TrEMBL record, chain A:
Keywords: Thiamine pyrophosphate. Pfam families: Transketolase_N. InterPro entries: THDP-binding, Transketolase_N. This is Transketolase. Its cofactor is thiamine diphosphate.
From TrEMBL, chain B:
Signal peptide: none annotated. Residues 21-186 form the Transketolase-like pyrimidine-binding domain. Keywords: Thiamine pyrophosphate. SMART domains: Transket_pyr (SM00861). This is Transketolase. Its cofactor is thiamine diphosphate. Belongs to the transketolase family. Transmembrane segments: none annotated. InterPro entries: PDH/Transketolase, THDP-binding, Transketo_C/PFOR_II, Transketolase-like_Pyr-bd, Transketolase_C. Gene3D superfamilies: 3.40.50.920, 3.40.50.970. The keyword Ubl conjugation does not apply.
Length: 288, 326
């Protein structure tokens, strides 16, 4: 889909820079933990950047009642979210240095009780869309105007609760719920469609009563324009699903071709090489 | 509509299905009261608004009621999300589904996230009678009790449920309520007072103290009266809050009575009896303990009243169990 954009060149640079920041910080933090979900973050780095540095309505107060909400069904990508929340000033940057160490608020999955800015805890795949449905219902009851963005993994589509939530969001006409599917094609045991086929995905969501769009999840211009547009659409009377086509491990070439990097550890030398690759690569689309 | 609903003992249904016993409407009536007092309560159910009476709340507050259809897991997770916006959601469905099917959602989204959701598991225990094991809930105390930061409450009747529901509007922890079919016999007066976490001590016996919860309190009370009339010294503790447990009440019984008998409409593994056993095992006390309930088995098919007789959970049955210990 061609998207006209009024995103400035400066903003495009900034979004690309923030996606690069997410990847670099992910490598740094996983060096502390000695194991982590590199490639799961690399596929959604542009989604994080687009939401937190452009699309979402947020403020300096992480508990502002009118803020847009962000939930992640794929909670294992939290290591990519934490640096953003620190960058927003929701908690001290030093917290990042304690990542996964004894008593740290920051673990492999996000905990809303410990980490300011995390809108809901996750880690058990399949719950987040339901949590988002509840937030939208609560917002309606309290007359609060916000949008709920729920990022889901494509392997997550295999969880039955996702479809319970999908039915309920459509049935209750929750037009302020936007699901973003990080369609990177891989899950722990291999290719999603080999493990448990989920296609035709767009048709499934349409059949469940959602408006569906597909976009290149690494093209910050296309992605951001799309998310701005679906958020601003006040005529829609149904929830919206954006299928973001992505590449698992995007940004580090050997991770893009080796699904084993879902959970792994780079030696310090390899971390440095990966860091140089990320610094010297301009990622703008390329998922087609 | 009959002024007084006419119950069919063989099925425990009302002959006039449009009629509602007062205890059935406790949930909706109390939530309507709380809403009128300014509490931000909301309600949801999974295709059971007539079973749990929430239809009345739905009519009074359509904007605060959510019908989730037959999707219990989605309902619990959504209630947790709703609570983050400042609402206090009360979600109700059969206890058999809440305690097992949605156990993980209750742990992850409600308790771990410390959201003020109140789960109402109704038609608990073996009160569904001949509907069978799929509809019996004899594991829910056990599963809910193992979840950190979650209160577990099993009221004895409608009057007690009403009071504890009212307290729940301002209680700091998430709560799992375990209630019967709404046809439960009356134990308390509407003006009796109860507190979450504080047992209702009817007496401590020198011979036996029965510690009971839920519908078993009614039968236990009858048993205590019969045994005391026969010259024994038997007391009763209504342990409506199983978590946080009133440990002082357990210790008082354990240090005063020769025997502590726990009675619950639940598997004896993991429920009230286990909670009491844990306290007694770690404390000095002279009493020996007997757990009575469902003996780690799936209940037979039967009308509920006949089941209570069979499993000795009615007055005469509990009396016989206690008598055998004397």
């Amino acid at each position: 889909m061609t998207v006209n954009t009024d995103i400035s060149a400066e903003q495009i640079d900034r979004l690309e820079d923030r996606a690069r920041f997410v990847r670099l910080e992910t490598i740094r933090l996983i060096e502390i933990a000695k194991v982590g979900h590199y490639s799961s973050v690399f596929s959604c780095a542009e989604i994080f950047a687009s939401l937190y540095y452009d699309v979402m309505k947020i403020s300096d107060d992480p508990n502002w009642p009118l803020r847009d909400r962000f939930l992640m069904g794929k909670g294992h990508a939290a290591v990519g979210l934490f640096p953003i929340l620190a960058d927003k000033g929701y908690f001290p940057e030093e917290w990042l240095d304690s990542y996964t160490r004894l008593g740290s608020p920051l673990g492999d999955h996000p905990d809303m009780r410990k980490v300011p800015g995390v809108d809901f805890s996750s880690g058990s795949i399949g719950h987040a869309l339901s949590n988002g449905v509840g937030m939208a219902l609560g917002g309606r009851m309290r007359d609060l105007d916000f949008t709920v963005f729920v990022m889901l993994g494509d392997g997550e589509m295999q969880e039955g609760q996702v479809w319970e939530a999908a039915i309920s969001a459509a049935s209750h006409k929750l037009s302020n719920v936007v699901a973003i599917i990080d369609r990177n094609g891989y899950q722990l045991d291999g290719k999603v469609d080999d493990v448990m086929a989920i296609e035709p995905l767009a048709e499934k969501w349409r059949a469940f009563g959602w408006e569906v769009h597909e976009v290149d999840g690494h093209d910050v211009v296309a992605l951001t324009s799309m998310l701005r547009r679906v958020k601003a659409d006040k005529n829609r009377d149904k929830p919206c699903c954006v299928i973001a086509k992505t590449v698992k491990g995007r940004g580090v070439d050997y991770m893009e071709t080796e699904p084993g990097w879902h959970l792994g550890y780079l030696s310090p030398e390899d971390s440095e090489k990966a860091r140089q690759t990320i610094l010297n690569t301009r990622i703008s689309g390329g998922t087609q | 509509m009959n002024a007084k609903p006419d119950l069919t003992p063989e099925s425990w249904q009302y002959r006039d299905l449009n009629s509602r016993a007062p205890s059935l409407s406790v949930l909706a009536d109390t939530l309507i009261e709380l809403a009128a007092e300014g509490h931000p309560v909301a309600a949801g159910t999974a295709d059971l608004q007539h079973s749990n009476g929430l239809v009345k709340f739905a009519e009074a507050h359509p904007d605060r009621f959510v019908q989730f259809g037959i999707s219990e897991q989605n309902m619990v997770s959504a209630a947790a999300g709703m609570a983050t916006t400042g609402m206090i959601p009360y979600v109700a469905t059969f206890a058999s589904f809440l305690g097992l099917l949605t156990c993980e959602q209750i742990r992850m989204d409600v308790a771990y996230c410390a959201q003020p959701v109140r789960m109402i598991g109704h038609h608990t225990g073996i009160s569904m009678g001949f509907y069978g094991t799929s509809h019996h809930a004899t594991e829910d105390i056990s599963t809910m009790r193992a979840i950190a930061d979650l209160a577990v409450i099993s009221p004895a009747d409608g009057a007690q449920f009403r009071q504890l529901l009212r307290h729940s509007a301002t209680y700091p922890l998430p709560i799992y309520f375990r209630i019967g079919r709404g046809h439960d016999p009356v134990v308390y007066d509407r003006n009796d007072s109860f507190q979450i976490g504080k047992a209702k001590v009817h007496g401590i016996g020198k011979d036996i103290t029965i510690i009971a919860c839920g519908m078993a309190v009614h039968g236990a009370k009858q048993a205590v009266e019969a045994l005391n009339e026969a010259g024994h010294s038997v007391g009763l503790v209504d342990m409506h809050t199983i978590k946080p447990l009133d440990e002082a009440a357990v210790l008082e019984a354990a240090q005063t009575s020769r025997i502590v008998l726990t009675v619950e409409e639940h598997n004896i593994l993991g429920g009230l009896g286990s909670a009491v056993a844990e306290i007694m095992a770690e404390s000095p006390g002279r009493a020996r303990l007997k757990r009575h309930g469902i003996m780690d088995e799936y209940a037979l098919i039967s009308p509920p009243m006949r089941l209570y007789q069979h499993y000795k959970l009615d007055g005469p049955g509990i009396r016989d169990v206690a008598q055998a210990l004397l």
